[in-house]
């Protein structure tokens, strides 16, 4: 069994005002776009301008979010830095590739190649703060952040870490959006983000963002909530198996589905797959409240990091923005389950509770 | 009592062999796989030498009975071959008899295809089936599906240290009782992207690389896949199996010095080796052999050598870089070289550091240049260091 951990610091950059807002999601922005883009902070207030100049969008948002989480938790050097990213540094990869093609493999800039390696975000955080500790990058679609989180919780359970910086980051570029929309992963037309539940087309409303947390073995005055567990499952044969896996995961934590006050699900507007969430909700969570998060941040491989940020705030401040409520919770929200899946292949759940 | 983690199966494919048997034969006969490339489609192809696997995409698909029209990256195919060998080698017939996971690593995933079809992706629909095989996790899922693994599957990507990191994570999953067995390793296929990337960094040798030699001038790129089967001791006992060796120590540390270059003091390497030793409970003089990262670049070999001196003082164990055989296989390097370490233990043999003539003046240490047989190899330490200051060390031991 893995120990629960406390979230003692958070930092999130997203298509909403999440980074330096005084209040929790007070002014939710409703978009009508093909994909949602982040609202960047004034980066030079958080990152050294010399270093900033060399950083691409994904690296900036990752590093800044990481710094914010550390600041909130009053931690200078974490015992580990674990980063999840599904597609890594798209912009740099595309830049290098396109230049390779255009210039026939000459006149290439090493910077975009170096920046394209998937562990560059975690590497640059370590470089900036001088952290020599464990530093890992997980790159597996919608398992990326979850694996990073699992590793972090494992370390704390093992006793090899007290405070771990863990996060999920993914960026969207025009090219990568086009390519994925072409094969039906993303929507080809603009969609109203507040209306994704009523979408009639396949493909998800795409987004991007970075969310980092400092997870710890002990509660402090900065604690938001606890993360009690995380689980991933691959290619379940049917909804019965999904329900069984979720139920048995909860059982391992001495809980039943009835104990979950609020289920935050990864509805993303894809008419082909969003039905899974409804089915699971009806099957086992008929007593729980139901919510969503991708109307705020869009679909991307590590969006569950945003969901974690959101759930942590809900558990701490006991407020739920109306925009994310599909079915109101019956009770005060003490336990949250985040449930996300990609194309019925990669399913993941994160269990969180108040502290 | 904490569970022990043992290695029960090995599987590999690289320029020196299609499987473990061929690989061992090459190692014992000083047969390097580094030569001019046949398959790479690059203007720089003839400027360098590579550890390339002499099989085309078609041939790889045939070996796996995959219909030619189906979209598989070269990366996926290499991974599937090596992972399958590892599972067979471990004598596993029912993969789901115990909670079994798969952890794989790659630096560029399906880039071997996406770089060829990137323009098509943007301008027409002829290569759409390859769009989704680009991401790092794709090859892992292809392997999971081939082997029937459902309990756990994920992917690590930390440049050249990636596949020591998968083995380490796998071991921890077993020790914590989350899983009973993990197939762990990594893969990378040669790509134009990587070739050009490394070329712009000016760390490629046009000639056959010379790790740890004073005149070394860079690395040779290689491709390959390597997987080990990790099993908990209680599972092995239940099955009445014999293991090849034990995974006794591992560690990951960050150099935090520069995005690509290693620090002059080899801090990250020093920390990784020190922590791995500490975890293993072994003394430094218990180490029989070190398989160094030894890429042949000016920076790595010096930095790694300095770190080794910091850890071992004047009594550095016999060591060699095997990259003179395979080239630098990037995401597969950690696991392939762990496999070489396991073979060293199994056969009581040290494989040599090819092309070494002169010691690096600044550090004055000599790798082993001959094959040493009939030497009891009890504990092997293996290093893999990647961009982003990612430094990993692993220690395996005779049982």
Strand content of chain B: 15-25%
At the fourth level of CATH, the homologous superfamily of the largest domain in chain B is Thiolase/Chalcone synthase
Structural class of chain B: alpha/beta
| Residues in helix, % of chain A | 25-40%
Sheet having the most strands of chain A: 11 strands, mixed
- Computed CA radius of gyration of chain B, to the nearest angstrom: 20 Å
Q: From the 3D coordinates, which CATH architecture of the largest domain in chain B would you assign? A: 3-Layer(aba) Sandwich
Sequence of strands across the biggest β-sheet of chain B: 5-4-6-7-1-8-12-11-9-10
Helix-strand pattern of chain A: EEHHEHHHEHEHEEEHEHEHHEEE
The CATH class of the largest domain in chain A, by name, is Alpha Beta
Q: Main beta sheet of chain B: strand number and arrangement?
A: 10 strands, mixed
Rounded mean pLDDT score of chain A: 97
CATH classification class of the largest domain in chain B: Alpha Beta
Helix content of chain B: 25-40%
State the end-to-end distance of chain A.
19 Å
- Number of continuous helical runs of chain B: 12
- Number of DSSP strands of chain A? 13
Could you tell me the CATH topology label of the largest domain in chain A: Peroxisomal Thiolase, Chain A, domain 1
Radius of gyration of chain A, taken over Cα atoms and rounded to an integer in Å: 19 Å
Task: Point out poorly predicted stretches of chain A.
Answer: none
Shape of chain A: globular
Give an overview in words.
- The complex is a heterodimer of chains A (355) and B (399).
- Helices cover 33% and strands 21% of the residues of chain A.
- Chain A has helices at residues 49-53, 57-73, 90-102, 110-115, 120-129, 144-158, 174-182, 239-252, 275-284, 294-297, 303-317; strands at residues 5-13, 32-33, 80-84, 134-138, 163-170, 191-192, 209-216, 225-234, 262-265, 289-292, 325-327, 335-342, 346-353.
- Chain A is built from eleven helices and 13 strands.
- The radius of gyration of chain A is 19 Å and the shape is globular.
- In chain A, the strands form two sheets. In chain A, strands 4-3-5-7-1-8-13-12-9-10-11 form an eleven-stranded mixed beta sheet, with helices on both faces. A two-stranded antiparallel sheet of chain A has the order 2-6.
- The longest helix of chain A has 17 residues, at 57-73.
- Chain A is α/β, with parallel strands linked by helices and 355 residues long.
- In chain A, α2 packs across α5 and α8 packs across α9.
- Chain A folds into two domains: 5-216, 3-Layer(aba) Sandwich (Peroxisomal Thiolase, Chain A, domain 1); 226-353, Thiolase/Chalcone synthase (Peroxisomal Thiolase, Chain A, domain 1).
- The mean pLDDT of chain A is 97.
- Chain B is α/β, with parallel strands linked by helices and 399 residues long.
- In chain B, α10 links the parallel β9 (289-291) and β10.
- In chain B, 64% of the residues are buried.
- Chain B folds into two domains: 5-239, Peroxisomal Thiolase, Chain A, domain 1 (3-Layer(aba) Sandwich), CATH 3.40.47.10; 249-397, 3-Layer(aba) Sandwich (Peroxisomal Thiolase, Chain A, domain 1), CATH 3.40.47.
- A ten-stranded mixed beta sheet of chain B has the order 5-4-6-7-1-8-12-11-9-10, with helices on both faces. In chain B, strands 2-3 form a two-stranded antiparallel ribbon.
- Chains A and B meet through α3, α4, α5, β4 and α6 of A and α4, α5, β5, α6 and α7 of B.
